[in-house]
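Notebook entry, structure prediction.
Reason for the run: the old model in the group folder had no record of what sequence produced it. Starting over properly, with the input documented here first.
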Amino acid sequence: MEYQLHGGDIYHGKIALDFSVNVNPLGLPCGVQKTLRDSVEHWNCYPDPECGELKKRLAEHHGIEQERIVCGNGAADLIYRLVLLKRPKQALLLSPTFSEYERALAIDGCQIRYYVLRADQDYRVNVWELAEHLAEGDWLFLCNPNNPTGLAVPGEQLEFLAEICQKKQGFLVVDECFCEFLDQPEKYTLMEQIRNYPEVILLRAFTKSYAMAGLRLGYAICGDTMLAKQLCLTGQPWSVSVPAQEAGVAALRENNYLEQTRALVEKERKWMEQRLGKLGFWVFPSQVNYLLFRDEKNRYGNLKIRLREKGILIRDCSNFQGLEPVGNISGFRYYRTAVRTREENEQLIEAIRMCDRNYEMTE
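New structure, fully documented this time:
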């Protein structure tokens, strides 16, 4: 299948480096790897359908009640389960943003409107303007930090949106799957205030922050404990496998892993911003482990295809709402790249340099 909705297609062709998905560049923590190896003998058993131990550890980790937590087969699983449970009639989405909100909402014929982010404002979310677009009964899905832009809305502004949704009898879903990559993640979440907002649900995942994409483990934190009970009943009983539950518990014991991750990402993101800029790209500001950039002069052709020929994947953003190529072949092309280790980042930058048509003409 040539067309891919998301990144991570390492299964067709020889791929040496994958920058198309934004998993932790440090890889799966050593403690989690050991736990997985040691837990193999338990894989013949059915998993705990309640995810009891994992929920207990998550409740302690976040300082919330266990009854608010629902575990699932990744955050995407919980998005679909929530939509199928509540069947929202109308919703407001950012443009551009993660596409699975739209896909899930479209299943039941939800009416979808878009709040369009602007390139000349670096695709930042203006919450005051966003709030003006909220209609009575709207569901608002907010990716925070947003994907593919990498910018986050501060906690006090999230509270403002939660209050607006409350007044308008709507619902707020905040996808915080990249929150752990922020320099101070506690300043960009409603975690401590979740008890005050029954019409809010937070989504988190081990997928990106702990490099556990292949294990599929996410969780929802509900402002309404009754909603949590209902959401638990929407999925099949064993949606979270034994290895995924074991890995999640082990990941929460990793004390310094996320701090090391943030230090590496901040350093490497600045390095990559500079290098991509020198190669002639317009690079948009980001606060996390990926960068959105564009080729304004079509200097590199279809960069995704040309890099794939070299065994490197990046994310072509042309199927994001609002990032489609403008006009004809001379229009902007948008891409997203993960921020990885220096050695890997150097390989990417060198491969991109060799795709420059001006460079090829001098060879």
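Summary: The radius of gyration is 21 Å.
The old model has been moved to the deprecated folder.
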